[in-house]
Specification:
Order of helices and strands: HHHHHHHHHHHHH
Structural class: mainly alpha
Organism: Rhodotorula paludigena
Strand content: under 5%
Subcellular location: Membrane
Distance between the termini: 52 Å
Number of helices: 13
Keywords: Membrane, Transmembrane, Transmembrane helix
Protein name: PQ-loop repeat-containing protein 1
Largest sheet: none
Membrane topology: Multi-pass membrane protein
Length: 284
C-alpha cells in the first residue's frame, strides 16, 4: 500500500506544478489579455529549473524532481508564448528600463536565444567544476533559492497596482496547495537536501502573503476586472487582434483591411505568425 501511495505522490510531484499554470494559459487565450501576469514568473521558473537539471547531474536526487523540472520548463515556454502574443506593444516601451531589457523582449525568439546561451555557460562550468562538491551544492542552493523567489514578482506587481486583476486565483490556490505538498514531501521523504526544505518553507510564506493581498485588494480588483471586460468589447483597445488598430485609429486610419494588415505585421515583428482568415470576417 505504501508503494502505491509513493507512486501517486511521485506522479503528483512531477505533473502537478506544471499543470498549475494550465488555467492561467486558458484564461489568457480566452481574454486575449496577459496584463496582470508577471513575465518574471516565467523567467524564474525556466532559469531555476534549468539550473536544477544541472544540479541533478551532480547530486542525483530523486528522478521525479528532474522530470518535474523538464515538464515545468516546457509549460513555462508555452505560457510565455501566449503572454507575449496577447500583451499590448506599448507595454514593452512603458516599463522601467532594465539592463539589456532583460526578459522584457517583445520577440519570443529572443528568449530562446538567451536560454541557449544560458545552457552553454552552465554546461561549460559544469564540465570544469562538477568534481568539486561545493560547486554542486551551490548549484542546488541557486536553483532552489531562485525558485523560492517565484511568487515575489507577482507580489510586487500586485502591490504596485493595488489589485490582483489578471492573476488567476486558481494559480494562487495551486501555488499554496503545491508548496504545502512539496514542503511535506521534502520533509518526510529521504534523499532531499536542506536546500529543498528551506526554500520550500520560504516559498510557502510568500504564498500566504499573496493570499493576504487577495483579500486586501479585493475591491480594486473587482473594479479593474469590470473595466477590462468593458474594454474588450471595443475593437482596438485590448487583445492581439488590435495591436496596431489603436495606433492606426490615432493616426486617422479606420479601414478594417488596414487594421488586419497592421495586426499581422505586429505579430510577425514579435516573432509570431498571424493566423489567416477569410477577408471580411472580423476577429472577435
Amino acid at each position: 500500500m505504501s508503494g502505491v501511495v509513493s507512486i501517486i505522490a511521485g506522479v503528483g510531484m512531477a505533473v502537478g506544478p506544471p499543470l498549475a499554470y494550465a488555467d492561467q494559459y486558458v484564461s489568457i487565450c480566452k481574454k486575449h489579455d496577459s496584463l496582470g501576469f508577471s513575465l518574471d514568473v516565467t523567467a524564474i521558473l525556466i532559469l531555476a529549473n534549468l539550473t536544477r537539471c544541472f544540479y541533478w547531474l551532480g547530486e542525483h536526487f530523486q528522478l521525479v524532481l528532474l522530470i518535474q523540472s523538464l515538464l515545468m520548463i516546457m509549460a513555462q515556454y508555452g505560457l510565455l508564448y501566449v503572454c507575449l502574443l496577447y500583451r499590448p506593444a506599448e507595454w514593452f516601451t512603458s516599463r522601467p528600463r532594465r539592463l539589456a531589457n532583460f526578459w522584457q523582449w517583445p520577440q519570443f525568439g529572443a528568449y530562446l536565444e538567451f536560454t541557449a546561451i544560458f545552457i552553454v555557460i552552465h554546461s561549460a562550468l559544469f564540465l570544469l567544476l562538477h568534481s568539486w562538491d561545493f560547486y554542486v551544492q551551490l548549484l542546488g542552493f541557486i536553483a532552489l533559492g531562485v525558485e523560492a523567489t517565484l511568487p515575489i514578482p507577482q507580489l510586487i506587481a500586485n502591490y504596485e497596482a493595488k489589485s490582483t486583476a489578471g492573476f488567476r486565483m486558481s494559480v494562487l490556490a495551486a501555488w499554496a496547495f503545491g508548496d504545502t505538498f512539496k514542503l511535506l514531501y521534502y520533509l518526510f521523504t529521504p534523499d532531499n537536501g536542506l536546500q529543498f526544505k528551506l526554500c520550500g518553507a520560504f516559498q510557502l510564506t510568500v504564498d500566504i502573503l499573496l493570499c493576504l493581498q487577495t483579500f486586501l485588494y479585493r475591491h480594486k480588483t473587482a473594479q479593474d476586472l469590470s473595466e477590462r471586460a468593458s474594454l474588450r468589447q471595443h475593437r482596438g483597445v485590448a487583445g492581439t487582434d488590435s495591436l496596431l488598430a489603436h495606433s492606426q485609429h490615432t493616426l486617422g486610419g479606420d479601414d478594417d483591411d488596414d487594421d488586419e494588415t497592421g495586426t499581422e505585421g505586429e505579430a510577425e515583428r514579435r516573432g509570431f505568425t498571424a493566423p489567416q482568415r477569410p477577408k471580411g470576417v472580423a476577429m472577435v
